[in-house]
Amino acid sequence: MSLTYRTLTNTDNSQITSLLDQAPVTNLYIRDLVDRQGIDYWGLHRWMGAFEGNRLVALNVDIACTQPNTPCKLSVPVGSTEACVAFGQYTASKGGVERIMAERGASQGFWQGLGSPKPLIDHPQDVMFISEKSEGDTLNIRPATKNHLKDLVESTALMRLEDEGQDPRTKDYSLWQRTIEVLVAQRRIWIATEDDQLAFVIEIGTRCSKGTQIGSTYVPKKFRGRGYATQGMRAIVNNLLGDTQFVSLLVNEGNIPARKCYQRVGFQYGDPYQLLVLS
């Protein structure tokens, strides 16, 4: 049966959640978006669906479409390569996108639909997840406060530099500082300190009752080699699993030390992912 495509609305909510819940770890970001904002969030996001008859079989959401004929901030496609190619073609007709982040087959199909533009960053990744608390030594972690803001602006930027190859401070320092201030206010950055210096930093991304996705993790160079990454990760996992079903994260394919750390804590491998940064 051939696929048909149309804009999704709040009336499609049950089919959207049913599709996303087929792979809850992989689709956590969009599932949380649906729960918090619904489909028609002030017209800022574009939701497109692919249907076999009346059944939704694939979807794409373009995040932060603030101006006509300009790239949106992020596209997250879900579903078959055929559908994701069509989604990419549609997004290209509306001005394109700055980055794609999705299950690998969906991400590559969407990129092909955009016309296969040369990416600035192309990171094959894997989803890893854990659903039971981890036994072993832990760091004494706590939510960061504005007292450490200056050091956090630096350490979180270095996290991004290691993860994505780009230092966000070079593009707009003030914007990056404001971003970190918001994350601190939302208790989404947790730290461990030693002699009042940051020894471990971790960012909490998506968080809802279904699951929680951890963002970047950073141990300053002077504190590396002491097991702090493993102990800090174990501590945050055990804290988060008190009120969420699983904790997940994305790890770059070539980051062997991080993969070994996460496996020591008890993370398992999920679906392959791919991050493509286009502008």
Specify the helix fraction band.
25-40%
How far is it from the N-terminal to the C-terminal residue, by CA? 36 Å
Label the overall shape: globular
User: Largest beta sheet: what is the strand line-up?
Assistant: 5-12-6-11-10-9-8-7
* String of helices and strands: EHHEEEHEHEEHHEEEHEHE
Would you tell me the structural class of the helices and strands?
alpha+beta
Query: Any idea what the radius of gyration is?
Result: 19 Å
Largest sheet: 8 strands, mixed
Q: What is the count of β-strands?
A: 12
Given as residue ranges, the uncertain stretches (5+ residues, pLDDT < 50) are none
Q: How much β-strand is present in the residues?
A: 25-35%
What do the pLDDT scores average to?
Answer: 93
Count of discrete alpha- or pi-helical segments spanning 4 or more residues:
8
Please provide a written account of the structure.
By secondary structure, the protein is of the alpha+beta class. Helix content is 33%, strand content 29%. The strands form 2 sheets. Strands 5-12-6-11-10-9-8-7 form an 8-stranded mixed sheet, sandwiched between helices. The chain has a 4-stranded antiparallel sheet with strand order 1-2-3-4, with helices on both faces. The longest helix is centred in the middle third of the chain and has 16 residues, at 149-164.
Quick overview of this protein structure:
The chain is 33% helix and 29% strand. It has 279 residues and is an alpha+beta fold.
